[in-house]
């Protein structure tokens, strides 16, 4: 075997490894989704969506759980989006590159790897008890916002960094102020990327159980929330509770609830992809 | 477009923050034991049918976590699968929370092994203590009794968050929380069921309901107290012959909550129906007269309060 042959062999080997690496994620996801759908699809019905939890698995529903999830997600978005994007813009456009800013940067990255239950304990101490919010939707949403802020900040910065500096120079050269440049040029150009980051972060938040249990998400809540200060339950907490029941039928309920949770995540991602594409087609220099 | 979206986020945030709602007389907040949760959930479900305006919410954060909130006055009723501890009592006193304990159902803790395990029929409380005590030297089945296999024993049990763990360690090892730590400590009992049913040399303990739902995958082990061997079942737990691993399940009610008519209605409804509902979710009802007794105890607890005022 000569050298060229060996190199070609290496090339092939790497190619197959690459295929394997790309496919494995999809295969695992497919097995997981297939299994969950196989188990849970029988329980999915309109009644399941509009009923309350019950001691009889077949009468149980997830109405308050998915309503709680939607409320929590709306508030988490409202809180984390402006804060995260604001911080990202500041750090990238206004912040001077000095020791202070690199100190901030390291700490934001570190925050992204703090276990989520720690955020739950922080939320319990600060929002639930100190700020007297009780185990409310607002306290839960603030806690989840803290959890995903680092991800939003980092992805906002990456998206802004990707905007060519020639755009900024051109805008400045025409006499635009810094804010005008950011608002009319940088943000529109990077908005697709920012949105992707925000949605990825929210997709993480929607599946969180531990911090919400610590903050005080309940399991049996017989009413849909009417205000951000109401008590709540969310889908992952309901799923967790059902999975730990002794009766097999509750596990089937859990599978059906997982399908709904996956559905909500897919819809959210779909909206994001739609906005991003719309955005990217519009931006042309 | 971008402007609109940004503006929408900012405005709706400010708007939604400014609206809110206060607590109401018709809310009952319950949290605590995951073991008791299914019973309270069932009671709340039935109660809602006759009193749709009383909003009962139930959490399932564990006996200990439930008491943490209860002694701060954050909940009205706390579910528990064990009695309140001295530290928790002290905290309640510090915060001026008066309360009373009520029994609502019975539960047995089952000792289980793999169905192919043909050597264990019974265990004595002393042997259980040998196996589970803090400095246990039991590593193989043969360490428990002569003639049992020279195979490593693999142990399953609840983790420290469970009231079941507190009760078992107190009953078997003499001190709540005194246990060997090199066992598979599970948060979710179904994990223990799976582990034991797939490992011939395993042994574990958990609430009777989990055995009964998985009876075909597990082997129940009788307890030999020297006065005969008893296996846990609805009957042996109810008549008290399954010793020492039978226990009461409790709810704790604060005095402040007991003054409210919504809570009074709910708790009375609880005692009237807990027996039937406990059976539905896999627990053992107390004898009928015990429910009457608990009910009148609650009456005097609530009534005293009114008189004192």
TrEMBL record, chain A:
Q: Which GO terms describe its biological process?
A: phosphate ion transmembrane transport
Where would one find coiled-coil regions in this protein?
none
Q: Where in the cell is it found?
A: Cell membrane
Q: Spell out the molecular function terms from Gene Ontology.
A: phosphate transmembrane transporter activity
| One of the record's GO cellular component terms | plasma membrane
Q: Tell me which residues make up the ABC transmembrane type-1 domain.
A: 66-272
Q: How does it sit in the membrane?
A: Multi-pass membrane protein
Task: Write the record's keywords in alphabetical order, separated by commas.
Answer: Cell membrane, Membrane, Transmembrane, Transmembrane helix, Transport
Q: Which family is this sequence assigned to?
A: Belongs to the binding-protein-dependent transport system permease family. CysTW subfamily.
Q: What is this protein called?
A: Phosphate transport system permease protein PstA
Q: Which organism is it from?
A: Fodinibius salipaludis
Species classification: Bacteria, Pseudomonadati, Balneolota, Balneolia, Balneolales
TrEMBL record, chain B:
> Which Pfam families does the protein's record reference?
PBP_like_2
Question: Its Gene Ontology biological processes?
Answer: phosphate ion transport
Q: Membrane-spanning regions, if any?
A: none
* Family under the similarity heading: Belongs to the PstS family.
Q: Which residues form the PBP domain?
A: 23-272
Range of residues in the leader sequence: none
The terms under GO molecular function for this entry are:
phosphate ion binding
Question: Origin, by domain of life?
Answer: Bacteria
Physiological role:
Involved in the system for phosphate transport across the cytoplasmic membrane.
The name this protein carries in UniProt is: Phosphate-binding protein
